[in-house]
Amino acid sequence: MTVIEVDRLTKRYRETVALDDVTVSFDENIIYGLLGRNGAGKTTLMSILTAQNFASAGAVRVFGEDPYENAHVLSRICFVREGQRYPDDARPPHAFRMARLFFPNWSQELADELVTAFQLPMKTRIKKLSRGQLSAVGVIIGLASRAEITFFDEPYLGLDAVARQIFYDRLLEDYAEHPRTVILSSHLIDEVANLIERVVVIDGGRILLDEETDAVRDRAATVVGDSDAVEAFVRGREVIHRESLGRVASVTVLGTLTDDDRRALAASGVEVGPVSLQQLIVRLTQHRADQSGRDAAEGALR
Amino acid sequence: MNRTLKVVRMQFVNRYTFVWMPLIILGASWAMSVVIFALIPYDGAKYGGGSQAPIWYFFALGIVALSYSFPFSQALSITRREFFLGTMLAALVTSLILGIVFVVGGAIEQATRGWGVNGYFFYLDWVWRSGPFAAGLFYASIGLLLFLLGFWGATVYRRFGPLGLTVALVAIGVALIALIWVITQVQAWPQVGAWMAGLDVPALTGVILLVTIVVGAGSFATLRRAVPA
Q1: What is the SS3 assignment for A32?
Q2: Are A239 and A77 contacting, i.e. CB atoms less than 8 angstroms apart?
């Protein structure tokens, strides 16, 4: 079932277009990765979906309704933004107590567990917390809210590798028990690659890609083996990435491999490995930037 | 529970801002005033402006209630209407408490002949002329108005930035000057003066509440399109 529909959404700021005619939808009980560069429009999109910000044109529907001033819809959503402001004099338990008032599915048990897991100091004022601890407050509210649609806006800023892993593990664990729609914006793409079921890539205010994560992975392959054999195979193909060590080369090529390709590779002793989602998305994003640059140049010539 | 009432509870979750700070300010300014009254070698009734301190704090409270809590209220999926009404209700409760404190304090002052030093912190003769109930409401209405002025100012700042707030303040200044100019042009100062002098405490409270409602309507209109970050 579709829970979020975005129809020709445009957001203009004074000098920039943050979202440019975006049409996309999100289904129930799926973990989405909302990926893109800084300033691509991720936060703006999430802000408008949660009625924290306003569209310049176009419409959004959440659970089939306009979310603006709609308590019925909003009470089922949670969006703690990156750099969220908290009451200046509040300590973490104050923030959690406030959150508990408004999220009907709030789990205090989960919140308490997460406080321990993240080693969040409960007696320090929020404004005195480190960047990572501040992120932990937002992550705890997002997870413990168990909202039907939960947005995480670059939730890992300042968190160390251990804390990030705790977040990923707890998210999956709790998601398995309490399925919900999760929209996770991130630019640590490889870290979240195993978490997200669907990838939405946004670039320059436009949706660049909206596909199953596995399907995206199939768009490219990495071949590893004797460098001569590998080079012979990749000739004429679009290469995304290339590494070599002595006689061994590892090359990532764009395009799905056919059965014939696989047979040929097996015959020449070249192995096919998984491709990095990050490499792929970076490449796709750059590809688009090059193209639009070329289009602009051609337009200027005409 | 109704979500608007939950906003009231949210504003009171951290008692520091809404309860302890005003009590500290009230207690400190009262204690200092009484000490000063005792030091003044004068036998007649002594009045001080110290009691204004907790009332002015309501202006700061209005700013804080918006700028500290509004961005977080958005993260808690609270609608702007719920946030506004709940915060107003919290302000109303706090203002009424202020009124009650001033009435009780004034009653004690009268009973103890000004804390034994003939000094009056809460009790002002002209405010009490229409009785303690009217006096309490008068103080509460001033507290509420100051709260809303702070709240509106902070909302304008959040929505339109420092430039917007400056322009708004300049506009209010220009409007007041225009009003003075009009009154001067039609030579209505004697009537205006007579009207002001003729206002008793209940009427003055009414005027304050009317202004409060106008400021409240303006605040809500501004908040409806405000963005948290």
Answers
A1: strand
A2: no
> Which chain B residues touch A83 with a CB distance below 8 Å?
229
pLDDT in tens, A139-194: 999 999 999 999 999 998 899 999 999 999 999 999 999 999 999 998 889 889 98
Structure confidence at residue B136 as a pLDDT band (50, 70, 90): very high
The chain B residue lying nearest A69, using CA atoms, is B79
Tell me how close the Cα of B12 comes to any Cα of chain A, in angstroms: 10
Boundary (domain end) residue, out of A153, A182, A215? A215
Q: Which residue of A has its CA nearest to B84?
A: A69
Question: What tokens were used for B129?
Answer: 């002329």
Residues of B in Cβ contact (< 8 Å) with A153: none
pLDDT digits (tens, 9 = 90+) for A250-267: 998 888 888 899 999 999
Please indicate whether, in this complex, the C-beta atoms of A87 and B14 are within 8 angstroms of each other.
yes
Residue in B13, B71, B79 nearest the CB of A85: B71
A228: DSSP letter: H
* Claim to verify: residue A39 and residue A166 sit in the same structural domain: yes
Record: contact A102-B225, CB cut-off 8 A: no
Do A88 and A24 lie in a common domain? yes
Q: Test A89 with B77 for CB contact under 8 angstroms.
A: no
Q: Do both A122 and A86 map to the same domain?
A: yes
Taking the C-alpha atoms of residue B222 and residue B219, their distance in angstroms, rounded to an integer, is 5
Instruction: Give me the residue label for tokens 């002001």.
Output: B196
Helices (H), chain A: 42-49, 71-74, 92-102, 108-118, 131-145, 161-177, 189-192, 213-217, 227-234, 259-267, 277-301
CA distance A62 to A181: 12
Q: Which domain holds residue A286?
A: 218-297
Verify that A9 and A66 share a domain, yes or no: yes
